[in-house]
Amino acid sequence: MACPCRTRENRIFGSWIRCIRRLVYGGVCALVFFLMQACHKASPPEPVTTLTLMDQTWVSRDYQRRLNGELAQFTRQTGIRVEFLPGPETTTEQLATYRKLLETRAKVPDVYGIDVIWPGILADNLLDLRGYIPEQEIQAHFPELIEANTVNGRLVALPANLNEGMLFYRVDLLRKYGYRAPPKTWEELEAMARRIQAGERASGNKDFWGFVWEGAPSEALTCNALEWQASEGGGTILDETGKVRVNNPHCIRAWERAARWVGSISPPGVVVYKEWDAGNMWQAGNAAFLRSWASEYIADRGPTCLIRDRFDIAPLPATARMAATIGGSGFGVSRYSLHPREAAMLVRYLSGREEQVTRCRNTTDAPTISQLYNDPELMPTNPQFPRVLEVFRKGVVLRPSRGAGKMYPEVSRAYWETVHAVLTREKSATQAAGELQEKLERILKTPTGQTDSESIKRLQKGRVIERPR
Amino acid sequence: METNSTQAHHATRIGLRSLLRPGALSIRFHLIACFILIVLLMIAADGVALWQYWQIEAAAQRVGQIDQISFAVVRIHLDVYSFRDRMAALAGSQDSREFFTEAATIQRSFLDRVDHTEQMLRAAPDIDQDAHISYALESLRVTLLSQLDTEVQLATAGEWSAVQLRAAIEIPALIEFSSALVERVDQQALEKQHAASDDAQKARQRLFIIVPIAASLTLLAAAALGWYVTRTVSGPLSALTASAEALARGDFHHRVQLSGNNELAVLGNAFNYAAMQLQSLYEDLRQSERELLDVIETIPTFAWTALPDGSVDFVNRQWREYTGFSREKTSGSGWQEAVHALDLERHMEKWHASLATGTLLETEARFRRAADAQYRWFLVRAVPLLDKDGQIVKWFGTLTDIEDRKRAEHEREQLRTDLAHVNRVSTMGELVASISHELKQPITAAIVRANTVLQWLSRDPPNLSRANQTASEIIEDGTRASEIIDRLRSLYKKSAPKREPVAVNDVIDEMVGILRPEATRHAVSIRADLAGNLPNVIADRVQIQQVLMNLMLNGIEAMQDTGGVLMLKSKLREDGPIQISLNDTGPGLSQGKTDQIFDAFFTTKPQGSGMGLAISKSIVESHGGRIWANGNGSRGATFHFTLPVGVEAMKEPARRRDMGDQEAIL
Q1: Global model pTM greater than 0.80
Q2: I want to staple A310 with a disulfide (CB 3.0 to 4.6 A). Which of A172, A257, B189, B199 is the partner?
Q3: What's the rounded Cα separation, in Å, for the pair A44 and A27?
Q4: For testing the chain A interface, which of B139, B188, B245 should be mutated: the one with the most A CBs within 10 Å?
Q5: B139, A97 contact by CB (below 8 A)
Q6: What is the DSSP string of B550-598?
């Protein structure tokens, strides 16, 4: 049994077995490796973080180009890609879309353009940015705007631009009809508009109107009407204590005056004009005055614009006090974003000083960093800045978004519907003011939650165009 | 209980530990594990191949899906285009009714398309991974609807210029956006196509790598299995075979050396144990065989065995020593040389008869002793060993030395013969008077005639013729006397017993002739009534004469005072033997003495030796016959004896003849 040849044979056997065992082990390892590789390859390679931005501002070639430039810069700096999603046209529809997305906890978009009136409504679904952005950078913005974007101590959006309601006027026409300065009061405006309109129509421009504004039942009408009401001394819908202030003579007077414009100095269709329609009319050179946002200044100076050298802006007319609705927006991060840190980086970038400076060079978006208003470098391209700052310091009114909180869309809707009814002569201003007073008080008593359901409904699919009466 | 459970636990732990030790795993386990490994490998390879195939398919499907989506998005884009064109055209015509209808149509068609596209997107969730396309679609829908809505309102308000301005300024942006969407989808489609084709290519490559690898792995596993089987099964099996062969050779010291604890090792251990047991059994067997052989070799008899054909294949030492024959010389029929030439034929006859019939062999023969070249008598006995079918397997036999018995028998016979002789002689002594009287007659006559011869010769002239005649008569007398003496001489003579065919009636006549003078002297007449045609008996004539003489004298003596008739009869009994009866008219025998009278030294006569009847009995019995007496009461006594005839009677004479020869040797 234990003969030497057997032992040698065993040794040879053993080495063979070791060899085969190694081969089998190696094969198994190779298979496992390939399997793992296959698994790895099967799943897509770890993608570069891609953020999605949904901005309020509606698409235009210039805007897109500018935004794409900004986002490309951000991508270059951080390696984070950003996709852009446009929102609907009006802020109402925008808000409804946002809410639909956020309340269904959509993971996309990551970053939203947040209108100044929205933080109170969207706060629950937005991230507190204080943990992501250095305090110093936050402090650089207007404290009023930071406050407007802070809900229950949470900074839910960082302001990126400042907007105000402004009066755009045709310098050439004013001069042509003997006016040296833009109107200080609504009555002056009425008179100027009437004269210029009559004159222009007489000289052959049949479609010319004195004053165009946003009369369509939308948030813009709330802004317009609020300016009328406030500048007449009628209050700002809700006062500081949260009480409804609409049913007062000043307010009624202001509304009646506006109703009077329709069909006289303003086209009858102004009651369906949205911001673009008013702007289109204005840019087409068919109006002497335009109520618009300060940010439109540069657009109107664009090379394609017919009136690019023939207009200027001024504070809106006022009887009691200067009153310009504050607009503008910032950026907030969805709480459901998969990349909150990167999204906050994007917000910091978009709202940051550097970016605002860049933007100031290309647009008329007013910065939210007060220091930039004194920057001599920006002055040549932004001659309107001192007026914007002046208005901001003296005569801005805030829509009651803070006071109404989540009920603001309802409040605003009730307000513009009422004003629209007055404008279309469905109701007298007095009756409408009384009804609105009651309605708003009722709305503000209802518990939060059943908010703006109508807007959301309107956004549902299969909406049928209502045949106008 | 507790200890039991602890033990069980311990046992389990040991079992587990031993299970984890590779050598302890059973071959079955190894084989099953190998097979499972192979099957798993094959399943894994097939799974991977299927998976890769599925990936290729899925990639192709994705490409198809995204193509469809791309197409749908293009149509949406075209819708937006047509929307602008239609709206601009209708705004020019300022036909509000047509405008509303058209707007409703566009809205419906647009919504349908978007819904359709969204459905497709939802059906292919992996295409729109960042959900951008669907959100862009949603955005586009909301925007376009909002545009439509606003334009309808503007148209309602108759603001056709505003409608136219929108168509000129805002809608292009919308178109741009939808165009961007199309681009985006196209780009994504392209990317997906690339990715899909890349995926497919990679999957194909992987397939080409994985399938051969899996196949070769499976082959390797199979080879390993085969190798393992060869090593763990064939190796130990060959060791087991070698051990079995060694065992078959009778090498019980061969042991299988198998390590581990598997089935073959267990088998090896069992084999070793069996070999050990076999060895011990074999040694026991050898021991007992040796002992048995010792017994067989040393018992004071000759033991032998033979094959069914009669050839001897074993003889024990006693035989060898006795005959001086080696085992080889004895085997077969070599043993026959030791048999006495005179016994051989008879012995072989009997042996062949036994071989043919399978009956027990029992015979006697003389075998030559090597030491002194003497023959000694042996009783040869052999029994067959039968198998279960009754066939003879072997014969077992013994040779028992019966020389001493033979000698004793012979001596007894001699004694009896001597006694019979003495008896005869003494009986003859009793007959002296009558014999001498019988002899005296011819002698006296011869003397007288001699005197007459002398007278005839003394006459002158001598009368020669008369003398001659008378001398002849003297010779006749002498011859007659001589005949008488001759007749008696055989009775006197002490001769060896022998067997020969004897005519009983002749013997009776002869004895009547001898004893008639005696009978006459006692006034007893002898009559004989003999059956004719009696067969001869094989007997010793002298002894038969002696028996007759004893019985006849007995009868004569019984009637010596009274005189009477002695009647002799012979007949062939129906049951075979010849019966001879002697009837006297003496006083008879008392009833109780008919048995005693044959005892030695029993006599009723004052001068009797008491031996005659006893000797007669022993003679008759030695001839295979019987003797008895009937007390006939007042009519005298009758004695009968029988002598057998036929084959039975033939055997005994042969032996007697042998004994005769033996006597010659002694």
Answers
A1: no
A2: A172
A3: 27
A4: B139
A5: yes
A6: HHHHHHHHHTTTT-EEEEEEEEE-TTSSEEEEEE--SS---GGGTTGGG
